[in-house]
Amino acid sequence: MSDRAEHISDTTADAAGKVSEALEFVERARGHLYSFHQLIGHADLVLGEAVDELRADGHTDLANTLDTEMVGRNVLNGRWTFQVVEEFDDTYWSPFRAADQRVRDELMDGVRHLHEARMKEQRRTHGHPDHTEKP
Fold it and tell me: pTM for the full model?
């Protein structure tokens, strides 16, 4: 563990760790948002194929209705999924990442995962080859 971090209290390290943990959940949510983006995009392409097949088989009215009403439709008011992702990134994800970095810079001497490093030091079996401090 870094000697430079010894002056940081366990309470501060724990709080900074919780900020990072919260960011980890935001990262996971962002991954789900990208899944949503890809799933909706794929669904729209498949629907477009279905419309083409319906039209080719003479179901023009239904194909035209699906094409007009559903293909390329916004998922939220004025937004396709890529715009939802971009807005999330700009409005929430990027500021959260910056806040996590600020906590680390101002309180943790830039050290990441100090809480976990301290936990590892407490929980590992010293002298055991599979419990070494560093790689």
Answer: 0.84
